[in-house]
Amino acid sequence: MVKNDVLNPHKKEVSSYTFKNIVLWIAENNTQSLFHERSLLHWLHVALGALRVALNTRELPYYMIPDRNLMAASELDEEQQSLWISTIKEMINEGPRMILRLPKIRRALIAHPEPFR
């Protein structure tokens, strides 16, 4: 949802595969007990931070072949890179409210707010 609804890439600057690799690296580097329903927003925050670093450095090791850089083939220009990094920083600074940027989640919260309070 972050890729499609917030960043909205026009080419293959980032893909769902980029996001999957970030999730795999996070899972690899943290114990399973840290992942539960109440920690979802924390891990979203961590993943956005990792994406910001990957965009800024243009480096993200491929999970299956760590020597391969997934960002090497990115068609990301400097203007878009700067815009996305800024957007991600804003989302991180918004804290849990960042999920309101995601239309599907926002609609779910409006329709059924009680479980999320």
Give a nutshell description of this structure.
Residues 10-82 form the Mab-21-like HhH/H2TH-like domain. The protein has helices spanning 2-7, 16-28, 40-57, 78-94, 103-111. The mean pLDDT is 89.
Descriptive report:
The protein is mainly alpha-helical. The chain contains five helices and no strands. Helix 2 (16-28) packs across helix 3 and helix 3 runs antiparallel to helix 4. The two termini are 22 Å apart. The mean pLDDT is 89.
Which characteristics define this entry?
single chain; mainly alpha
List the helices and strands and how they pair.
Blueprint: H1 2-7, H2 16-28, H3 40-57, H4 78-94, H5 103-111
Helix pairs in contact: 2-3, 3-4
Number of helices: 5
Mean of all residue-level pLDDT scores:
89
The coarse overall form would be globular
Based on DSSP secondary structure assignment, what is the total number of beta strands?
0
Radius of gyration: 15 Å
In N-to-C order, the SSE pattern is HHHHH
Oligomerization status of the protein chains:
single chain
The largest sheet is: none
Q: Report, as a whole number of angstroms, the end-to-end distance.
A: 22 Å
How much of the sequence lies in strands comes to under 5%
Portion of residues in helices? 40-55%
**What are the low-pLDDT stretches, counting only 5+ consecutive residues below 50?**
none
